[in-house]
Amino acid sequence: MTDLAERLLLRTLALVDVASTSGDEAEILEALDVPGRLPVLDAGDCVRWYGPPERRAGTPLVLLAGHVDTVPSNGNLPGRREGDAVIGRGAADMKGALAVMEAVAAELAAAADLDVGVLFFGREELPITRSALLPLFDRCPSIREVDLAVVMEPTGNAIEIGCLGNLNALASFHGRTAHSARPWLGDNAIHAAIEGLAPVATSVPLDVTVDGLTYREVVSVTAIHGGLAGNVVPDLVEAHVNYRYAPGTTPQRAEAALREMLPATDLEVLGNAPPAPVNVTDPLVDRLRRSGSLEVRPKQAWTPVAEFATIGVSAVNFGPGDPGYAHADDERIDAHALVRSYEILRAFLAGGTADEEER
Question: What is the per-residue pLDDT for 355?
């Protein structure tokens, strides 16, 4: 194993061992290390934003962005080494990426072609109403000068373009209680829910192609609650409905579509995070692609690229984590993925290719 691979694995393990469940990120933000030559531009509410000491005229600004929080652990902390891999909560999503960001930042002298910033932020695993990025954008309008944000979500070192919108709603079905021996005296809310949620249960994914990339719109019931006792006809059922919708659809249109699907429902929108636009023609995205002959594919999820889109900043998803391990109890990342990500980013920032970096 190379010295670089060992250093990245050790740093990933150290970061995994700093517990940082969403809403409790202070310790991990203090643990992260960016060289002093990149001054802190903002250290406000759950963020650390580092930027170039001065901008060079005509030079694009690239921001490496990564969230520091994780979903709650489930017997997978502390982390551990297993051969050439680190296993533990956050290894794939996305503390391995944080280790890569630190290492790349330490080598910024080689990035002569582009101005570079680094952004660590928390509360990403929570609803957008608790976003740490949106308040930062309000506090620091200068972040709108970023030409490309590379959001280091787990993509297996592919470029994933855009993202789905994410609408969460509470569907309520009302009835009237009665003894279950005389159900005709009541109105069974569970029966109403079975009928009312049928359009969701029988829905099929809808493929939507945008600029050659195909996104799948899907709607699911993800939780349901109702009933008082085994001998009582229930008067209330509440179901959590999640709708993922393609780029090009507005949050307003998505809400209208869900209401059309569930017309007999008392529907309360809990959150509606917009999708991100598809930016396959962005020259900096193409430069990133060419830096490692990278696969380009759609992002079949919601990520903070959508938040950057709200301020007109082009953003893509790219990171070393395997998305199949994100949030899993056996979450892991291997040395090869970490080194590959590091080499691609260094090549991208310096104007070369990862193969040249290896030579």
Answer: 63
The residue range of the domain holding 64 is 3-163+276-358
Q: Is 171 exposed, middle or buried (0-12, 13-18, 19+ CB in 10 A)?
A: buried
Q: Whose CA is closest to 81, among 156, 12, 154? A: 12
Which residues neighbour 183 within 8 Å (Cβ) at sequence distance 6 or greater? 233
How many distinct structural domains can be found in the chain? 2
Q: What is the CATH number of the domain that holds 339?
A: 3.40.630.10
Taking each helix axis from N to C terminus, what angle separates 335-350 and 283-292, rounded to the nearest 10 degrees?
130
124 is catalytic: yes
Same domain, 7 and 95: yes
pLDDT per residue over 45-97, tens digit each? Answer: 999 999 988 888 889 999 999 999 999 999 999 999 999 999 999 999 999 99
Do 171 and 259 belong to one domain? Answer: yes
Q: Are residues 254 and 293 in the same domain?
A: no
Q: Are residues 23 and 98 in the same domain?
A: yes
Pairing of strands 47-50, 40-42: antiparallel
CATH number for the domain spanning 222: value is 3.30.70.360
Instruction: Check: CB of residue 51 under 8 Å from CB of residue 117.
Output: yes
Could you tell me whether strands 332-334 and 85-87 are parallel, antiparallel, or unpaired per DSSP bridges? Answer: antiparallel
**Catalytic residue from among 25, 93, 102, 124:** 124
Question: What percent of the chain shows pLDDT beyond 70?
Answer: 97
Cα separation, 210 vs 298, in Å, equals 9
Neighbours of 41 (CB within 10 A): 18
Report the distance separating Cα 135 and Cα 96, nearest Å.
26
In this prediction the pTM is 0.90
Q: Examine the domain organization and report whether 324 and 206 are in the same domain.
A: no
Burial class from Cβ neighbours inside 10 Å (0-12, 13-18, 19+) for residue 324 reads: exposed
Catalytic residue among 69, 217, 307, 343: 69
* Res 356: pLDDT: 52
30 is catalytic: no
